[in-house]
Design brief:
single chain; about 110 residues; 3 helices; about 30% strand; elongated; binds adenosine-5'-triphosphate; binds magnesium ion
């Protein structure tokens, strides 16, 4: 199991969610966050509203998946979020030790989706 964290541009969220749906990836946590990358928060004015402290508004997606869904998830996020401009975002893939569906007590891969 993997835990996939993606930080993307707010205006790409709808497209990424649609690409994920097309690959049967429906479960996701979405958070509005602040961040900066290599450009140190210098915004291209037409894309991002500049916030205090050299931070730009971004959206973080978190998706826990079984191993078979790692590649489809990365493809969906990349294809939905890429414009070719700086600041398109980044994806982090972490090993996931455990997952528990609280209602049933199911664990592991069965509990993920
Ligand atoms: N190494 C990192 N650690 C933590 N967060 C990061 C890291 N790199 C990027 N991020 C997050 O992802 C957001 C988008 O990063 P961004 O796409 O600008 O990466 P980049 O490395 O600067 O690439 P690019 O040159 O294409 O802009 C950042 O605002 C930050 O929130
Ligand atoms: Mg950048």
């Amino acid at each position: 199991m993997k835990y996939i964290i993606a930080v993307i541009q707010p205006d790409r969220v709808d497209d990424v969610l649609e690409k994920l749906e097309q690959k049967e990836i429906h479960l996701v946590t979405v958070t509005t966050v602040m961040g900066r990358g290599r450009q140190k928060g210098v915004a291209t004015v037409y894309r991002s509203h500049k916030e205090a402290g050299s931070l730009l508004k971004k959206v973080k997606l978190e998706i826990a998946v079984n191993d078979a869904f790692v590649t489809p998830t990365l493809e969906a996020i990349t294809s939905g979020a890429r414009t070719g401009e700086v600041g398109d975002g980044k994806i982090f893939v972490l090993d996931l030790q455990e997952c528990v569906r609280i209602r049933t007590g199911e664990t592991g891969g069965v509990a993920i989706g």
